[in-house]
C-alpha cells in the first residue's frame, strides 16, 4: 500500500546536506514496520516525506497507488484527513481543546455530524482506556494518557496508514508498553498499516519488520518470526552490529 | 464539535495568547472613538469653530484611522506568526488552507467585534475626562458638556467593523502557503541573523552622520528644503543601524570568548542574535514611530512656546504701544488717551511709562543703533522692578543682544569694544554690559547719561514707546481690555495677555490634535515592544526552565531578563530620542528660536514614561518567568 522508490532528500542551506539517499521501501496492507537507526540517520526526514510534511528531492512516494506529493493543495488536505494518521513524539495536542475535542478534530475538519463524532470518540476512548478523561484539558493529563489521546486522534477517522515518530520517546517504560500494545492491537484488529520510527528496541519488537537506516541509506532489515523475545534480541544484535553506540541510540532526540 | 465551535473555543479558551492582540485592537478602537466623541461634539457643528480646525480634525481622524489599520494588521500578523505551529498541526490533520483561513477569519471577526464594542464602552467611560481635557487645552468659550455621542458610536462601529473585515481578508496573504515543515518547526526555527556586512554597517553610520550633520548645519528656510531628504536618509540609516550595525556589534561580541563566555552573557547574546531579525525590524519600527511622536509633540509644543513665550518675553509689559513711523503726534496722543480710558473702564490698575527710542548711525554693525537715556531706561526699569543704572558723564552701558536671538545672527562687532564718538571728538566709553529685555529691541544698544543725548547729532529715527504694567492677578481684566484695545487702536498696541489668549485659542485645536496623534503613536510603539517581548515568553520560559535545572539562581535569572528587556525597551527609544533632539534642533534653526527647555521637557517626559513602562512590564515578565521556572 506504501511504496517508496529511490527517495532522496537534500537539505539546502549554507552547506547542502544529503539526509537521505536512494531509499526503497514497501509496506503491505496491514503491515507494521518499524524504522530504526542512529540519531541523525534520517528517520524523521523519511517519515516527514511519507507524511507529506516535507517533499522529497528525488524519487517517488505512492500511497494506495496515488502520489500525494503530486496532489493539489485541497486534494492533499482531503487525502491527509482521510488516509493518514499521525502520532508525534511530543503528542502535539491542541491545548485549547478538551481531550474529546482533540480526538474528534479530524472529523470536525471533515464536517462530520456531531452525533457520529460523539459515538466514534466514545468507542475509541473505550478501547484506549481514556474514557474517564474525555472532558479534561490537555494540561491535566499525564504523558502516557496524552499519547493515547494522540493515537485516538490519529485513528478516529480510520486511516489506512498510521505514521508514528518516536511515539514512546517521551514516555516511561510502563506507559511505553501500554502505548505499544495499543498500537499493535489496532494494527491487528483494524488492519491499519503502521509505520513507526523509534530508537527503542523494546518498542520496535512489536512490529512485523524492522528496517535499519544509517547515514540516510538503507542498511538492513529483519523480520519478526515467531517470538517477540527472540525478535528483540535480534534487534539488539543488529544495533550493536551497526556500531552506533548505545548511548547515542538511547539518547532522547527532541 | 463543529468547525465553528472549534474556532470559537480556540479563542475563548486561550485568552492569554489572544489578549495582546485583543487589547491592542481594543486600544485602537478606544483612541479612535474618544477622538470621534471630541470631533463630533455639537459645540463644533454650530460653526463656531473655524473651518481650519475642522479640516485639521478630519485629517487627524484619517491619520488615526489609517494608522489603526496598519497597527491592527501588524498586531495580527505578529499574532499569527506565533501560531504557525498550531496551523501546521491542523494542516497535518487534514485542514485545508480554506479551513484555516475560515478559522482565522472567524476569530478575527469575533475579536474585532468584541474589541470594537469594548473600545466604545471604555471610551464612553473616559468621554467626560477627554471633554474636560479638551476644554482646557482648547480654550473655547463654551463648555464642552457631556453628550451621548450617537454619531461617534455609529462612525466608530462602522469604521472598525469594516477595518476588521478588510483585515480578515488580508489574512489570506499572511498565511500564504508556507511549506508544512516550516510551519511545524516554526517556533523552534531561528529566523536567523540578517546578513550583516561591514560595508553596510559603515554606510549606516555615514547616513546617520550625513543626516544629522545636515540637520545641524542648515539654517532658517533651508531647513524646509533639507527636511525631506534628511528624513529619508535618517530613516534608511536607522534601518541599517538596527539590521547591520547591531548585528555586526553582537557578532564581534560573540567572537570575543572572554566576554561571550562570561557568566550569563552567553545567554543574553545568543538570545539576541537568535531573535535578531525580529528584533531589528521591531526596533526600527518603534524607533521611527516614536521619533514621529516626539517630533510632532515637540514641534507643536515648541511652536506654541515660540508664539506665546516668545511674545511674552520680547515684550514683558502688560500693554505696549509702539506707533508707526508715520504716525502724527496728535494721533498718538489720542490713542494713548483711548487706551488709558479702556484700562480705567475695565478697572485695571496700571503704571505707565513713556520712553523715546532714538536710533543713531554710529558706524557700527552696519545698522542704526539705539542710544537710550538713563532716565528713560530707569523709568522702564522701575515699571518692571529692575535695578536702575547710572552711567557716568562719559560712560555708556551696553545692553546685550537678547538671549532669544540664535547664535547664527550674533552681531559682528561687540558694542563693548566700540566707543561712541561725539561730534566734538569726545569718546563715550562702554564700561559694563548688562542683560535685560526692557526695551522692545532685540539687538544690543547703549544707555548713556541724559546729558550725552543732547550732545549727539540728530537721530536717524526717533519714536516714542509706551508701556503699561498691570498689578498681578488681573489677567482676566487685561484680556477684556486687550480685546477692546485691539479693536479700537489696532496693531501698534499690544496687550500681552490678550495676544497670548488669542494665540492659544487659535492654536488649541492643533495642539490638542497633535498631542492626541503623538500619544497614539507613542503608545502603539510601546505595544509593539510588548508584542515582541511576549511572543518570546513561552520560548523564554522553556529556556529558563531547562537552564534553571542546571543551576541558575533567581538573581542571575533576573539579571539576564532585566538586561534583555532593558535593551529591547531602550535601544529603539534612545535612538528615537536622539532623532527627536536633532529634529527639534533643526526646528529651532528654522525659527531662529532657542527650544532647549521645550525639547528637554518633551523628550525627558517621554523618556520618563518609557522608564516607568519598562519597570512595569519587566516586573510582570520576570514574575511570569519565575512562576514557570521555580
Ligand atoms: N531542516 C533541516 N535542514 C538541514 N538539515 C537538516 C534539517 N532537518 C534535519 N537535518 C539533518 O538531516 C539529518 C537527519 O535528520 P533526522 O531525519 O531528523 O534524523 P533522525 O534520524 O534522528 O530523526 C541530520 O543530520 C540533521 O542534522
Ligand atoms: Mg527524529
**CATH classification, class level of chain A:** Alpha Beta
Mean pLDDT of chain A: 89
In what range is the share of β-strand residues of chain B? 5-15%
The CATH homologous superfamily of chain A corresponds to P-loop containing nucleotide triphosphate hydrolases
The geometry of chain B reads as elongated
Strand order of the largest sheet of chain A: 5-6-7-3-8-9
Rg of chain A over CA atoms, rounded to whole Å, is 18 Å
Per the CATH scheme, the topology name of chain A is Rossmann fold
CATH architecture of chain A: 3-Layer(aba) Sandwich
Overall number of strands of chain B: 9
Give the overall average pLDDT of chain B. 81
Shape of chain A: globular
Q: How would you characterize the largest beta sheet of chain B?
A: 9 strands, mixed
Q: How many separate domains make up the residues of chain A?
A: 1
Structural class call of chain B reads alpha+beta
Bound molecules: adenosine-5'-diphosphate, magnesium ion
SSE pattern of chain A, N- to C-terminal: EEEHEHEHHHEHEHEEHH
Residue ranges of chain B: pLDDT <50 for 5 or more in a row?
Answer: none
Q: Structural class per helix/strand content of chain A?
A: alpha/beta
Protein name (chain B): ABC transporter permease
Organism (chain B): Tigheibacillus jepli
Transmembrane segments (chain B): 20-41, 53-80, 100-126, 146-175, 196-218, 224-250, 283-303, 510-533, 566-588, 600-621
Membrane topology (chain B): Multi-pass membrane protein
